[in-house]
Amino acid sequence: MIAEPLNLTVSLRGTREVRDNCQLFRLTGLLDAFSEPTFRKILSNKINEGPKHIILDLSQIDFVDSSGLGALVQLAKQANSTGTLQIVTNARVTQTVKLVRLEKFLALQTTVDAALDNIKSS
User: Fold this and answer.
1) Phi and psi (nearest 5°) for 70?
2) 5 - beta bridge partners?
């Protein structure tokens, strides 16, 4: 599997891998008001390209603000209309998501393997 680099922002970097029936996005840095428009646009386009199951690995994200959460909600709605979206988090991201009670809607996972298992069982 070759990780394709995503052209995001200075503060948000990432890659995309296409596996069997899913896309795996690994992101590092800040998902904030500065990076959100580019993040949302690029990921939205990739979701439309397919495959339909999406895993966002945010385990290396340092910070998520309300703009980032809004983008995650929009992408979840888009992905869930044709497939699934699973988000792999770290403690910081999980705490932010739970603060606004979106943990069930955003299908938080602890590892990429757990997210892959969820896709296989769906």
Assistant:
1) -60, -40
2) 15
Q: How far is CA 17 from CA 7, 59, 97, in A?
A: 14, 16, 25
3-state SS assignment for residue 29: strand
Nearest to 69 by CA among 38, 109, 40, 29: 40
Residue type, 100: V
3-state SS class at 33: coil
How far, in Å, CA of 93 to CA of 99, rounded? Answer: 10
User: Which are the contacts of 92, defined by CB distance < 8 A and separation ≥ 6?
Assistant: 61, 62, 63, 64
C-alpha to C-alpha distance for 13 and 8, rounded to whole angstroms: 6
Helix 91-99 vs helix 66-80: crossing angle, to nearest 10: 80
Q: Residues 37-64: pLDDT tens digits?
A: 999 999 999 999 989 999 999 999 999 9
**pLDDT, tens digit, for every residue of 75-89?**
999 999 989 999 999
Prediction pTM value: 0.94
The one-letter amino acid at 107: A
Give the residue among 28, 25, 24 at the shortest CA–CA distance from 12: 28
